[in-house]
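Researcher: Here's the sequence for the chain we discussed earlier.
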Amino acid sequence: MRRQILALVLFCFFIAGCSDSKTVQNNLVKIEQLKIKNDSLKRILTKNKITMKKQIKTFLTFQDNNAENAMNFYVALFNNSKIIDVKRWGENAPVEAGKIMHATFDLNGSLFMCSDSPPVHDWGFTPAVSNFIDCETESELENLFSKLSENGTVTMPLNNYGFSKKFGWVIDQFGVSWQLNLP
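Model: Thanks. This is the structure I predict for it:
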């Protein structure tokens, strides 16, 4: 142990003797600045994790074993989207093995969750609760409207209804309701 300490002290004297004091001082300042930046980034990451846990998420319950198809469709449709986590039902489960027990995905910054529900309920999706999207361009609005309405139902065709430039409302092929708006 003493040899290691002696070697470390000698190494420090060697380094100090090989460089001028301004270089050493500049390096110490840079190290301190990096420590401050590192601490700041750690605080941001911690804050983001806490915020993400407390964020309100839309939960889609599929009773027809379409959770994975719907999730993949939405993630492919919306920019900056990804699947975050998927947990699947195993053998001897109340639904077919491999179906989604619980999944989390991000649609352009909004968190969604979904599952294939084992019990079939007396309710399904309702258009009264919908996903509202402000589109940036008319082409984005028309593209989303076209893809979401394919094999779905148009409840309000694209038009100017007086409250925005263009608006449309669809229920997609999975029964989920979408309001698309061009402000």
